[in-house]
Input
Amino acid sequence: MSKQISFKLEELAKLINGKVVGDTNAVVDNLSAVQNANSSSITFLSNAKYIDLLDNSNASAVVVDINFKEDSRFNYIKCNDPYIAYAQLSKIFKNDSEIKIPSIHKSATISKDAEVHESVYIGPNVYVGPNCKIHSGVEIHANCSLVKDVIVGSHSIIHHGTILGSEGFGYAPSDEGYVKIEQLGGLSIGKNVEIGANCTIDRGALDDTQIHDGVKLDNLVHIAHNVVLGKNSAIAASCAIAGSSIIGENFQMGGLSGVLGHLSICNDVTVGAHTLITKNIEKPGNYVGIMPAQKHQDWAKSSVLIKKLSK
Amino acid sequence: MSKQISFKLEELAKLINGKVVGDTNAVVDNLSAVQNANSSSITFLSNAKYIDLLDNSNASAVVVDINFKEDSRFNYIKCNDPYIAYAQLSKIFKNDSEIKIPSIHKSATISKDAEVHESVYIGPNVYVGPNCKIHSGVEIHANCSLVKDVIVGSHSIIHHGTILGSEGFGYAPSDEGYVKIEQLGGLSIGKNVEIGANCTIDRGALDDTQIHDGVKLDNLVHIAHNVVLGKNSAIAASCAIAGSSIIGENFQMGGLSGVLGHLSICNDVTVGAHTLITKNIEKPGNYVGIMPAQKHQDWAKSSVLIKKLSK
Amino acid sequence: MSKQISFKLEELAKLINGKVVGDTNAVVDNLSAVQNANSSSITFLSNAKYIDLLDNSNASAVVVDINFKEDSRFNYIKCNDPYIAYAQLSKIFKNDSEIKIPSIHKSATISKDAEVHESVYIGPNVYVGPNCKIHSGVEIHANCSLVKDVIVGSHSIIHHGTILGSEGFGYAPSDEGYVKIEQLGGLSIGKNVEIGANCTIDRGALDDTQIHDGVKLDNLVHIAHNVVLGKNSAIAASCAIAGSSIIGENFQMGGLSGVLGHLSICNDVTVGAHTLITKNIEKPGNYVGIMPAQKHQDWAKSSVLIKKLSK
Output
């Protein structure tokens, strides 16, 4: 499927800042998982606990840690961080045809007062509303909507089906039902941000919602109005962050987790999967709130006793 | 970005049913949060606990509660409910250009036997399938799909990327795998309903799924087939309600929560975030089922002990 | 709304492999729920606990279990599994106009190196990217994106707004922030699979993500890269499965639940709603991890005591 590209190991070692142990002239033409490698594959070992998988691998070459005790079964490239080397190799072996050429697909609808840099890629059926500004090198993939007042910083990527700048969920309760609060703020997305597929990020009520540089969101993530999400944070799939929470740098959150609204979370906090944060966090660290899964009959007993705790 | 609109305080006071204390002729041209206000801003104080924020505010005028003890730092508009006043002001300061003019975008696909009122706005790339009926003043934003047999009541708003009338999840298990149950019902959405972005609401299996007047759904909410969701209910992001549950009026649910199928929930029930309702609820009140988040090492201990409870 | 179609009970009994007790010549023209049936309806009783609903039903005929003790109130069709009979009847009474004719909507964007079988239906605003292969009888509904390297097996159905083959969430952490890992694998979907609305299924990092034959996913489900999901598994709405987990056949999972990454789950496992699986599962059975919902004041007490468990 992909265009085959061949490299001598010495070439690759130069590109990933490593050192060949074995045949520097050996040629590889694909990057594979250890167990699926063939005789012209390069693979990698980033975690010592998977070392036994090498026993059945047909790879030509393996990227390993600098301290790995090599043998003669494979050619090796030793480097400081084999996982970063893998990331670099993934780019080298990416098919050229996948690289997005700057263009606006003819089926996209771009508001006349949106500003789109000439180096931007905009895919099929994308809608870009009024007052949006899209900086250089951005990719906005098929079926996304940028509603209004959205700024996307340079080299950020918005994956398919994602909605940016949607209306925040704001109503004032009254005797006659809810009175809608118009959302007058915008959404500001920094540089090198990546937003997964089918996400929703609301624009602010009065001020802007802010997603800072280097943030990475997985698929189906919701970010409410007026959230500030700090630099280099990473959030796994199906999480939700409620309105006006201010979150520090390097925040990480496992899937299906949430943060209540109007909270303040310091830098360097990690939250486990399927956990809800209900209070401010002032100390960096790892926070978890999972109810452990058990066989149904055991859970039923634990569950009754948890309820009894309150009596 | 927005068109500037100027008002004397006495004009605004009339529009929001309040009373000016201070300079009735003072002119404001924008609505801002307390901390970002400038010398021509009007802002509001809806919760006494944020009163200290006024100390550093540059606002010209502040909307406050009728009982607020005013001083000479700002002009004030006193009114019964400053939060409702804020909602009213948000509409006044909304940019005219945001108001959706009745129209069907040329990229939309409307089934020939759908009925669309002439006052409806339908955005880019919307699909409206057979037997849909869309009443007056409705907005259906970009990239939505109304699959089939969907009625949308007047003045309801469907935000971007939402799917209405999707097939319910129905299969009869058999020895040869699942046998699909065709979904023959429809979806009936009342008046003044608002559905967030990237939601999914299934049509019924035999009868209709029903979303009653005044319901508000945030983004990424799922409502399964044959659910009945009572008047003026409000559901936060990333919730899911399973099939055939019948839910009363004024239901409120925090984010990432769920309701199992075939349940009955009375009027005036509030459910916290990240909570699952597994039984019928017959008494109004506030229900919560969150496993508290802790530092990882503490959680690990609690978790072991919860499991031991069952022994 | 639907075309009326009339059947004698003896005709229907033949089609669903049942036996009429009562008037074999009675004519029915619609399939309804017990409580909404009219004098020309056929309905069904698949669970004895709903038997009292028959007291107020106006149905002409009722599909019942072979052991049901019939009376003279209704005509009956007795059969081995009334729920499967209902599924069969739902197909019989489905409006012909709903059947999707093979076609590619003119607003769809199909990559020139995608292979689409002539019997496929592709709806409005669908994007099909490079190296996709879509087999016979597949339906891909409006506003879906198939990003790249996606194979869809015959007679599978992809509902509206779903993203297949999206980029997996892969980054190598470095001192300068995250280094993106290009996703070089594909996504392979088997036969007779059904994927709900607004789902996301990532393609693999190096190998393929695999969804095996007969899998059924509800709406808003996320499947991460390199997951293998076994034959005839069924996953309810708003669930998420993290990367590289290998899941056996007949897996079932309630809504809002998740599976952590790199786990192995045997065949015939059922997981309750709002539960997180954090460990390998080696024994078939029913696993649950719900924190029970309580009145707020009771929950507050339980919650404090759960935290104390760790002291």
